[in-house]
Every structure is written in C-alpha cells, then in structure tokens.
Design brief:
By secondary structure, this protein is α/β, with parallel strands linked by helices. Helices cover 29% and strands 20% of the residues. The protein has a 3-stranded mixed sheet with strand order 3-5-4, covered by helices on one side. Strands 6-9-10 form a 3-stranded parallel sheet. A hairpin with a 2-residue loop joins strand 1 and strand 2. Helix 1 crosses helix 2. The C terminus is likely disordered.
Length: 183
C-alpha cells in the first residue's frame, strides 16, 4: 500500500463459509477497494472452470474478505490482484507463497492494470523481507527508478494477466477439472 508515511504491506484474509453467495468486506475499506473486491470475485466466477471450481460455487458459500488493521482506512484499486489471488487460494485450497507481495488493479476479464506508488510499495516489501513482488507490466518501466538495494533484494515479476499472477503466487498449479459432458 502507498500511505502518507511511505509504504506498507497489507495482509488479506479470505474465509469461505456455508451460505448463499454473499460477499462480506471488512477492514475499513473505501468504495474503490470494495469495487476491486467485487471485480476480483467476478473474475473468479468467470474463470471457475479453468480454476477447477464448480461453476456455481457461490450457491452454497459466502466469502468474507478482511484486510486487518480495521482502524486504518484503506482505499484504491491496487489490491485487486491480491484480493483475487486470496479468493482463488481460499476456494481452491492452494496456499499462496508466503514470500510474495503484489500490487495491481484487476479488470473483470483478469487483465492487470498499472498502479502508482511503486517505489514506496517496494521499499515496504523489502523492509518486510518479501522475496518476490508481482507488479503490472505497465509499471516495469518504473523499476529503473527504484533504490539499488530494492532492485538487488527483490525478484520482480511484471504481469499482464491474472493467469500470470497465479502462476507466480500460488504454491502449486491449479488442478483444472475436465469439462463436464452434457447428459
């Protein structure tokens, strides 16, 4: 996250519970961040088959997305790919790699759009001992402007799509189920 104090690393938690398709968002999130969570869920629903999920996975489940430090307001689109990754991880049961941070806006079709505050975000990642940072391909040109110690201490992964994000972020590949044949 880009903050008035520089940068910070935010945690994102997702819980999947029995329910009827409700998305609950907590952690003092602003409207833009709430929209990012909705876009992340729509992406996941559209890609359900490719992700090995039942097409109607939300009929019997609710999702709760929480970004801790609830007293601190959070907003902006940059957490979109992180929220989508956390949702996919929770639904597939495949953990996210613990040494990866990411920033990028997500579209409904899973494209990854550019962000601001890359320097502050990557300095925060280094300070928090993050080994890999996933960032939008649009921001790859900004890597030259980062401090030398940040460039030396982090492996950067510029991406264009959520498929590329998940290939880096998930601890293992998604097990895609074969398409159901009509009966």
């Amino acid at each position: 996250a880009y903050t008035s104090m520089g940068g910070d690393v935010l945690e994102i938690e997702v819980s999947v519970v029995p329910g009827r398709g409700r998305l609950q968002l907590t952690g003092t999130l602003g409207d833009v961040m709430k929209e990012s969570a909705s876009a992340a869920l729509s992406y996941t629903r559209a890609r359900a088959g490719t992700l090995g999920l039942e097409r109607e996975f939300l009929r019997s489940r609710d999702l709760h997305v929480h970004i801790p430090a609830g007293a601190t307001p959070k907003d902006g689109p940059s957490a979109g790919i992180a929220i989508a990754s956390a949702i996919v991880s929770a639904l597939t049961g495949i953990p996210l790699r613990g040494n990866v941070a990411m920033t990028g806006e997500i579209t409904l079709r899973g494209r990854v759009l550019g962000i601001g505050g890359l320097k502050e975000k990557t300095v925060a990642a280094l300070r928090n001992r993050v080994a890999h940072v996933i960032l939008p391909q649009e921001n790859a040109r900004d890597l030259d402007e980062l401090p030398v110690e940040v460039k030396a201490g982090i492996d950067f992964h510029p991406v264009r799509t959520m498929d590329e994000v998940l290939a880096v972020a998930l601890a293992r590949a998604v097990d895609v189920r074969p398409a159901e044949s009509p009966t």
